[in-house]
Amino acid sequence: MNLESTKVTVQKSAQELFNLLSDVKNFEKLMPENIAKFEVIGDDAFIFGLKGMPEIKLKMKEQVAPTKIVLGAASDKLPFTLVANIDAVSETSSDVKLDFEGDFNPMMAMMIKGPIGKFIETLAGNMNKL
Predict the structure, then answer these.
(1) CA-based end-to-end distance of the chain
(2) InterPro entries, per this entry (predicted)?
């Protein structure tokens, strides 16, 4: 299952945005308002929980400065990645798009497609809060 957020323009250079997204603590600022839990559990990992959903542990998997950051589920139960693709627009602005890719059975994919789609749109929409 693949989902993409809309492309969002942020008034930060690609490198500055990359640096902000490289620090997992900053993901708390991107979370939706209905966040039930957010806990940093290391330099490269955090746990978050939304009301009515199981907690998810995300870990930094890959960084390609200043264009790409890959977060992945730390559990094999829900195998997925969340990729932030950053494109420089100018020296003071950049575009970012989030791509979600998960390997789920059709029933699970049908159940989570809506909530996950909303979630990545919220993350992208909150990029200007960084």
Answers:
(1) 28
(2) START-like_dom_sf (IPR023393)
